[in-house]
């Protein structure tokens, strides 16, 4: 298991190939269908700075944050997958979720030196690794607001990186 | 309120929490066996993490998944027992308290018919605002009043299917159709390994009710030949845990066959229970 501190620095990237298991430490953002398109609209309108959110080297976990905890939603839902290019361009290094992404998204991730990792739906375990949580933006979205979590060892596995994906025909899980 | 009714409320609350936080012993053993046989270290790691989550959930009484599901209630009544409005009220009260204590994810949608459909008025903050699915009551031979609580997650609902199959007087025709649906659904489910729960009946309602019975009574360590065949064929699909490939796409299959219609048609309800399901607990009231 490779331990990774957030924000993520560029020179880490060559080692993060598909099939690498990683543990994430530090502050991660969360967002899903409701809030990620709004975040992209802020970026496109040059208003992200006003929120105090810094996406350089960031991790975005596709989840709601409810009293029940957190757990990955499908990253290939339109309102989530369609935000991956703009968020990668804005500096997000790891998109964290579940499910197969399109070949086009995998190419875009490569172009912006970002990766996609999947996290098992293990809410109770993740709960034991969350040290702090706060709403970072869009509080009106309730559990789907843009949250920031401070985490200690979130377990995940690199599923798409450097133009390759674990879901491709012919690729075997290492 | 008499002591007996108080007891019912408490027992139902505990059953809901147990369904949401505990993996059965037979499910844990089948997962452990899969870990021993999977050749890929990454696939083994996924299965180990799912098991570790189950242990943490049980110890901390936290939900195994943040999609805590919609409560479904199945009440068995036999012998001299009776079901009164007071007993039903206590059951619903126990469900509400369980959802608050766990806590479940607040998922009840506000508004009128159209507003609920469009989800345009937001959600209630109270997890207990979630109304359980219609209760099913069944007469049984035993002298019992027994409640089964199931918590049904959204992913398996998206990938589930209730449809007609033309059987052509061959079990293999029905099986081929089920396996084709299951492989398609498992590839999209994400939260594999799955456990297909299947009901076959005369109507859509009956097939869905039989599927729920299959979830309640199915055992990972007791599989008949048809269940084994469905599991084996799914495991040849190389979808694997979390879709990362491998031999463990399904852990088992739970099948319930009801009375059948004199016709060329069978109604099949298939629900691909995800890796945290079936979330079910049973309690004598
Ligand atoms: S499919 Fe199951 S494990 Fe996955 S998010 Fe839904 S309830 Fe949780």
Automatic annotation (TrEMBL), chain A:
InterPro entries linked: Fe-S_hydro-lyase_TtdB-typ_cat, Fe-S_hydroAse_TtdB_cat_sf
Domain Fe-S hydro-lyase tartrate dehydratase beta-type catalytic: 11-169
Pfam families: Fumerase_C
Protein keywords: Lyase
GO molecular function list: hydro-lyase activity
Family indicated by similarity: Belongs to the class-I fumarase family.
UniProt protein name: Fumarate hydratase C-terminal domain-containing protein
From TrEMBL, chain B:
Parts forming coiled coils: none
Protein name as it appears in the record: Fumarate hydratase
Pfam families, alphabetized: Fumerase
Ranges of residues in domain Fe-S hydro-lyase tartrate dehydratase alpha-type catalytic: 11-277
Family: Belongs to the class-I fumarase family.
Superkingdom as given in the UniProt entry: Bacteria
UniProt entry tagged with the keyword Magnesium: no
Keywords noted in UniProt: 4Fe-4S, Iron, Iron-sulfur, Lyase, Metal-binding
Residues of the signal peptide: none
PANTHER family hit by this protein: L(+)-TARTRATE DEHYDRATASE SUBUNIT BETA, L(+)-TARTRATE DEHYDRATASE SUBUNIT BETA-RELATED
GO terms of molecular function: 4 iron, 4 sulfur cluster binding; lyase activity; metal ion binding
Entry keyword Transmembrane helix: no
InterPro entries given in the database record: Fe-S_hydro-lyase_TtdA-typ_cat
């Amino acid at each position: 298991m490779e331990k990774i501190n957030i924000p993520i620095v560029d020179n880490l990237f060559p080692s993060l190939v598909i099939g690498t298991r990683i543990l994430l430490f530090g502050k991660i953002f969360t967002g899903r269908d409701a809030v990620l398109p709004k975040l992209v609209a802020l970026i496109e309108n040059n208003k992200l700075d006003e929120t105090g959110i810094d996406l350089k080297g960031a991790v975005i976990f596709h989840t709601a944050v409810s009293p029940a905890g957190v757990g990955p939603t499908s990253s290939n839902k339109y309102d989530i997958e369609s935000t991956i290019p703009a968020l990668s361009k804005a500096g997000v290094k790891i998109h964290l979720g579940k499910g197969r992404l399109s070949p086009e998204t995998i190419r875009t991730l490569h172009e912006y030196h970002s990766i996609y990792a999947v996290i098992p739906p293990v809410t109770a375990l993740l709960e034991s690794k969350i040290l702090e949580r706060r709403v970072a933006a869009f509080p009106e979205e309730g559990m789907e607001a843009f949250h920031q979590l401070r985490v200690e060892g979130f377990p995940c596995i690199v599923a798409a990186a450097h133009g390759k994906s674990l879901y491709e025909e012919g690729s075997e899980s290492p | 309120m008499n002591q007996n009714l108080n007891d019912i409320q408490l027992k139902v609350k505990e059953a809901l929490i147990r369904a949401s936080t505990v993996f059965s012993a037979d499910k844990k053993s089948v997962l452990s066996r899969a870990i021993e046989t999977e050749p890929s270290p990454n696939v083994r790691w996924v299965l180990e993490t799912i098991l570790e989550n189950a242990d943490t959930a049980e110890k901390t009484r936290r939900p195994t998944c943040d999609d805590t599901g919609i409560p479904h209630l199945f009440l068995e009544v036999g012998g001299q027992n009776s079901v009164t409005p007071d007993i039903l009220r206590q059951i619903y009260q126990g469900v509400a308290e369980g959802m608050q204590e766990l806590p479940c994810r607040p998922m009840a949608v506000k508004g009128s018919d159209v507003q609920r459909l469009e989800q345009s008025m937001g959600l209630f903050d109270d997890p207990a605002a979630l109304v359980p699915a219609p209760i099913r009551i069944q007469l049984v031979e035993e002298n019992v009043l027994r409640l089964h609580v199931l918590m049904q997650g959204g992913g398996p609902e998206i990938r589930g299917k209730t449809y007609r199959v033309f059987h052509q007087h061959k079990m293999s025709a029905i099986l081929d159709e089920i396996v084709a649906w299951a492989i398609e659904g498992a590839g999209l489910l994400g939260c594999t390994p799955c456990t297909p729960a299947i009901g076959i009946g005369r109507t859509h309602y009956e097939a869905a009710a039989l599927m729920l019975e299959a979830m309640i009574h199915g055992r990972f360590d007791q599989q008949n030949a048809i269940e084994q065949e469905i599991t084996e064929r799914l495991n040849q699909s190389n979808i694997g845990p979390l879709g990362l490939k491998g031999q463990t796409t399904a852990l088992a299959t739970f099948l319930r066959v009801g009375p059948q219609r004199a016709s060329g048609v069978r109604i099949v309800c298939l629900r691909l229970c995800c890796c945290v399901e079936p979330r079910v607990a049973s309690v004598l009231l």
